[in-house]
């Protein structure tokens, strides 16, 4: 395979096709509509299911229905559509069916705008609907990682029978980058042993999230919590850059994570020992590793395209061991390298290291 | 002891419990017509020999536990979304028989978008729509189909169209969609109408088996508990009053559906 | 290490997004890391359009930049916006056909190309983007002109096919001006 110039939205859609997605349901919303457009042709050509639904509410419930049938299924959307899907997320979590949803975040709240943002972090990691549950949240920083994470998302969703979000932003969706698509994988033909396929030759199956008996519902919740604990123990992912000798640690994910890679390089050129930790899963979160690094570095800078949402998870992990500064941009603005670099220098001055 | 064991040898078994129903007793109130319609659906599934291929979508409402009473695969939808869920299920399982069972709050209020769009797309699914003009499970509040002047727990002075709008006539609306092939409104108020309803349900399932498009059977039903009537009076009331706002009859039947032989 | 942060800017319809994409395809063909990111949304409707292209020998960090090492401007608003932002030591390429303005900056290299006039002479003013991309290649050799011509052949839409040869001539013409 060779590298191609691929637009983020087209890349994840095509990657899903190649990773064997059997059904896609969506509704147009900027900045991710190219995915829906791409799949409208590709899925039909491949003899798979594509449907443009009447709303994101309907789309996620179509996804829910198809997931109950045990097929590989997904949706994609952006902020306002993601809000509408929250109903389905909760039912999907309660019924434990595997589903992948891509959220190309845009500026909010409300209609906001269509520029990149990371302000759905709380929504995706803490409370994507009513009830006690977490989705696994993957955070790609470039088009290649976005492609790779589609495969990972389906695998994790099916392994744990859980909801997986792929958390991108408008910039990742709209940008083109050199990347390589996976080869076409065969579509799975067998259905898992919990799927509803008609009861011929077996007992009837019911997929529901309704448990009127409090003890039964508590048992379901305890079961979900045990499952989440296993996910937490096994699926935390992150990437580190030059943390070995770092005095200062940058923590950022997705598009801001890659911007911070440039910040780190420039800061090092200017003589500051800066490292970068880029979370690749937002839930579960690399808190143990951050706690460990907090014992070694002298200060931490968190940067996000939000008012400071991941920041709260970093603070929880660091427990006041070292000073934490925050740089956030909102409204669809992306932080530039020089503004974050200025914050790095402020942090350095605060803890008394480096000379500019 | 089996049923066969107690039947004298010279007698033929002509009526039995449908195989597609479980042996469990329902939780429905005395006189509620859900039980009748459940049984009709089960008989149709048995007669068409589709028990092993059928997947039901349970609603939110009194029939939320419908899957306890049917011996077929079932999924539970969120309120109003059964047609969307059915769409997803059917599209990835085109060889299965998928039906939704929905009440008036579910289908005619919170789920209007989903039912109209599913009908318009001509989804090859069957919808059984129970219209009893009230929210039963939540305690007798006004439904989109509550009759004008009808007293409910959320329209204590009687439904005032100036405040709450008019009863929604879903079958009439669904019949205007291009994808619908069979839309009919029936009632289960006496032996004759129950038999007629069964034939309609059978036709609706047959339309799906033949892959003709969307079919919906609306069933005017009673809710003695929330109507504050005894079951007999509720039946009479449904026949006299509901059928005025919701006229019985077939609103759409495609030629191909007409040609189906029950 | 080879690394350029390039902004292409002009009116919508001047083909700046395609010029950026063509350079991006060429970068990949020469084994460089590449990012291309457009301004998108309502601002694209009839107004100015721009895209940022980064070509690098190492993994690309920030996909957007405040100070480009190269700015290619096709209209006056773009000149006014990006001329002050070019990194000291960087390159500014100006479509002098439509931009009646020169820079005072001494800390950058500036090339003036009458791209729209040249394109018109070659038969289609819409090829100004290729003239000016040619100038960029001629001035920097970030990728080879042959690679760009090959990528043009691969990525020119069916509808534009008849313009392949004239476009290649436009590229070469621009490259010649930048060298000279």
Strand arrangement, largest sheet of chain C?
Answer: 2-3-1-4-5-6
Number of helices, counting only DSSP H or I runs of 4 residues or more of chain C: 6
Apparent shape of chain C? globular
The quaternary structure here is heterotrimer
Question: Per CATH, which architecture of chain B?
Answer: 3-Layer(aba) Sandwich
Elements of chain B, N to C (H/E): HHEEHEHHEEEHHEHEHHEH
Helix amount of chain C: 25-40%
Number of domains of chain B: 1
CATH homologous group name of chain B? Thiamin diphosphate (ThDP)-binding fold, Pyr/PP domains
CATH topology of chain B, anyone? Rossmann fold
Structural class of chain B: alpha/beta
Give the strand order of the largest sheet of chain B, numbering strands 1, 2, ... along the chain.
Answer: 2-1-3-4-8-7-9
Rounded average pLDDT of chain C = 93
Question: How many angstroms does the end-to-end distance of chain C come to?
Answer: 26 Å
- Proportion of helical residues of chain B: 25-40%
Count of individual helical segments of chain B: 11
Question: Which stretches of chain B are low in confidence, meaning pLDDT under 50 for 5 or more residues running?
Answer: none
Unreliable segments of 5+ consecutive residues of chain C: none
Biggest interface: A-B, 40 and 35 residues
Tell me the CATH superfamily of chain C.
Pyruvate-ferredoxin oxidoreductase, PFOR, domain III
Structural domains of chain C: how many: 1
Could you give a short description of this structure?
Chain A is of the alpha/beta class and 356 residues long. Chain A has helices at residues 8-18, 33-45, 56-68, 79-95, 121-125, 143-160, 170-174, 214-234, 254-269, 287-294, 310-318, 337-351, and strands at residues 4-7, 23-26, 49-52, 73-77, 99-105, 136-138, 163-169, 176-179, 206-207, 238-241, 248-251, 274-279, 281-283, 299-304, 324-328.
């Amino acid at each position: 395979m060779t590298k191609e110039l691929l637009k983020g939205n087209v890349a994840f859609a095509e990657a899903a096709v190649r990773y064997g997605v059997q059904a896609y349901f969506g509704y147009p919303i900027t900045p991710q509509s190219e995915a829906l457009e791409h799949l409208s042709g590709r899925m039909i050509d491949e003899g798979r299911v594509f449907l443009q639904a009447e709303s994101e509410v309907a789309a996620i419930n179509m996804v829910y229905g198809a997931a109950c049938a045990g097929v590989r299924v997904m949706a994609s959307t952006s902020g306002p559509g993601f809000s509408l899907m929250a109903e389905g997320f909760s039912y999907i979590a309660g019924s434990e069916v595997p589903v992948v949803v891509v959220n190309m975040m845009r500026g909010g709240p409300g209609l906001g705008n269509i520029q990149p943002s990371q302000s759905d972090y709380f929504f995706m990691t803490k409370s994507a609907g009513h009830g006690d549950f977490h989705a696994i949240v993957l955070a790609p920083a470039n088009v290649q990682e976005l492609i790779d994470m589609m495969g990972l998302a389906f695998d994790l969703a099916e392994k744990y029978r859980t909801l997986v979000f792929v958390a991108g932003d408008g910039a990742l969706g709209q940008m083109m980058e050199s990347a390589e698509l996976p080869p076409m994988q065969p579509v799975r033909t067998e259905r898992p042993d919990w799927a509803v396929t008609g009861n011929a030759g077996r007992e009837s199956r019911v997929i529901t999230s309704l448990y009127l008996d409090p003890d039964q519902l508590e048992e379901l919740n305890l079961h979900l919590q045990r499952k989440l604990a296993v996910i937490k123990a096994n699926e935390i992912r992150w990437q580190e850059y030059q943390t070995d000798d770092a005095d200062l640690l940058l923590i950022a994910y997705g598009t801001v994570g890659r911007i911070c890679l440039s910040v780190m390089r420039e800061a090092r050129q200017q003589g500051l020992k800066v490292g970068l930790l880029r979370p690749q899963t937002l839930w579960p979160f690399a808190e143990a590793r951050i706690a460990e690094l907090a014992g070694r570095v002298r200060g931490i800078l968190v940067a996000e395209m939000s008012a400071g949402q991941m920041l709260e998870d970093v603070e929880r992990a660091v427990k006041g061991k070292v000073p934490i500064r925050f740089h956030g941009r909102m409204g669809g603005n992306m932080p530039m390298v020089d503004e974050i670099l200025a914050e790095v220098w402020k942090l350095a001055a605060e803890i008394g290291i480096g000379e500019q | 002891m089996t049923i066969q064991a107690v039947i004298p040898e010279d007698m033929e078994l002509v009526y039995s419990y449908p195989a597609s129903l479980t042996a469990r007793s329902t939780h429905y109130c005395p006189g509620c017509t859900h039980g009748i319609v459940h049984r009709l659906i089960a008989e149709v599934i048995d007669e068409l020999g589709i028990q092993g291929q059928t997947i039901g979508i349970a609603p939110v409402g009194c029939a939320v536990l419908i899957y306890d009473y049917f011996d077929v695969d079932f999924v539970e939808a969120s309120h109003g979304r059964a047609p969307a869920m059915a769409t997803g299920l059917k599209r990835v399982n085109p060889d299965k028989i998928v039906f939704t069972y929905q009440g008036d709050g579910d289908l005619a209020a919170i789920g209007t978008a989903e039912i109209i769009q599913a009908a318009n797309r001509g989804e090859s699914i069957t919808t059984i729509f129970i219209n009893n003009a009230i929210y039963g499970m939540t305690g007798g509040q006004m439904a989109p189909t509550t009759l004008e002047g009808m007293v409910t727990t959320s329209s204590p002075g009687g439904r005032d169209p100036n405040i709450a709008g008019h009863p929604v006539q879903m079958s009439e609306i669904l019949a205007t969609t291009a994808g619908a092939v069979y839309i009919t409104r029936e009632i289960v108020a006496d032996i004759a109408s129950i038999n007629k309803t069964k034939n309609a349900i059978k036709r609706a399932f047959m339309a799906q088996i033949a892959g003709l498009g969307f079919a919906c059977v609306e069933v005017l039903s009673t809710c003695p508990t929330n109507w504050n009537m005894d079951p007999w009076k509720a039946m009479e009331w449904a026949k006299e009053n509901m059928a005025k706002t919701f006229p019985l009859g077939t609103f759409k039947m495609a030629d191909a559906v007409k040609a189906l032989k029950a | 290490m080879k690394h350029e942060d390039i902004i292409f800017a002009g009116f919508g319809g001047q083909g700046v997004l395609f010029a950026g994409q063509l350079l991006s395809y060429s970068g990949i063909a020469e084994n460089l890391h590449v990012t291309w990111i457009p301004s998108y949304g309502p601002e694209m409707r009839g107004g100015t359009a721009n895209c940022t292209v980064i070509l690098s020998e190492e993994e690309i960090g920030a996909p957007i930049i405040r100070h480009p090492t190269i700015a290619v401007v096709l209209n006056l608003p773009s000149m006014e916006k990006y001329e002050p932002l070019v990194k000291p030591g960087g390159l500014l390429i100006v479509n002098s056909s439509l931009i009646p303005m020169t820079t005072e900056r001494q800390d950058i290299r500036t090339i003036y190309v009458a791209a729209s006039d040249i394109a018109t002479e070659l038969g289609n003013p819409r090829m100004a983007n290729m003239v000016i991309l040619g100038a960029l290649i001629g001035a920097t050799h970030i990728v080879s002109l042959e690679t760009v011509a090959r990528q043009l052949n691969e990525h020119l839409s069916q509808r534009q096919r008849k313009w392949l040869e004239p476009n290649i001539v436009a590229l070469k013409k621009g490259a010649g001006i930048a060298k000279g």
